[in-house]
Amino acid sequence: MKKILFGTVALMMLQACTTSDLVKVEVENTSDWVRMNEMVELDYAAIVDKLQLAEDTSIVVLNNRGEQVPYQITFDNKLIFLVDELEPSHARAYLVKPGVPDTFDVCATGDYYPERVDDIAWENGCIAFRAYGPALQESGERAFGYDAWVKRVGYPVVADRYAAELNPETVAEIARLKSVAPDSAAALYNSVSYHVDHGNGLDYYKVGPTLGAGAAALLDADGNIVYPYCYNDFEILDNGPLRFTVSLRYRPFVLGNDTVVETRVITLDEGSQLNRIDVTYHNLKSPTGMVSGIVLHDVDGAMEYDAALGYAAYAEPADSLNGQTFLGMAYGASVQRAEPVYFDEAERAARGAEGHLLMERMYVPGETITYYAGAGWSKWGFESSQDWFVYMKYFADKLSTPLVVTVK
Length: 408
Known about the structure:
CATH architecture of the largest domain: Distorted Sandwich
Distance between the termini: 22 Å
Strand content: 35-45%
CATH topology of the largest domain: Beta-galactosidase, Chain A, domain 5
Oligomer: single chain
Helix content: 10-25%
Shape: globular
Number of domains: 3
Structural class: alpha+beta
CATH class of the largest domain: Mainly Beta
């Protein structure tokens, strides 16, 4: 029998309020998995209308124990909050009502870093990522895909990593010491570098001229990947506490007879290892193959993939110092293919990698394709590659069987 976990405190509140004073939200898990850390989305305009809220009236979201739950109103006017754990065939009720919200910690956040060649970097309590910007492209460096920064603390760390690595006084001192005391210069660099784990994780993932940690790309008429370069302009749409969203627009490129402009909207929610990525190719005139890919740095990395279930997962070989990085992609539906594709000798040398684990489907002009891509770490949440593969299969399954949300 299905159980609705609706506590005594919440029931007392229902008895004390009229229907216009509150909105009841029931969240049901109809899948066979325990659902962990999933975001619920509601139409905030409908909530406002149902509660008859004045423009300056704030709200609170309460769980079944009558406790406030962190929430966020997103750029596209959704009310979101996190459901931390929900057993199969169970439901839970929440209340939304006028009130003064508590102050909650920011978990999902990001920023633009012009001081680091226009990086945009973002994170939640699980993982961090970055996308490369126009200043890096103008430098001639080739870095096409997403970078993954592993972390092992639940609070934001990316801004502090940049501040330490790029401190002008420290950078100048390292430069001075290089000519007179190289060992001291190296020690000082290692003490501030985000490529070294100082207790909260690090950046040790290599992107280079590849798709990195799950970037998308079109295929040309010969089936070759048309690699995207760095974003050209951006807009941060959401910045916490529970969701970070950024819109990236890329420079025009020519594919056949079309001059194509790519836009991506990247969303990272608290509790998720994977970004939601919405990709649109403007001005494309005919259906074209599209892939998303994870770079394969080593042929010995373990992988699992299933085109019918629409997911792919990769575990890089373990690093004796820094542990093991896990990567994954999911579409929530079947794709045309999911498989490793290896470079020939020349391309292997040019890209500094063995190939990609690719997922392919057809892009139809005018559509927006949504998929998910992200990473995990053996030192924060995943003890083995098998743990990661289970997570990715679960993630793909939950996309096809979302939580059932009913507003009353």
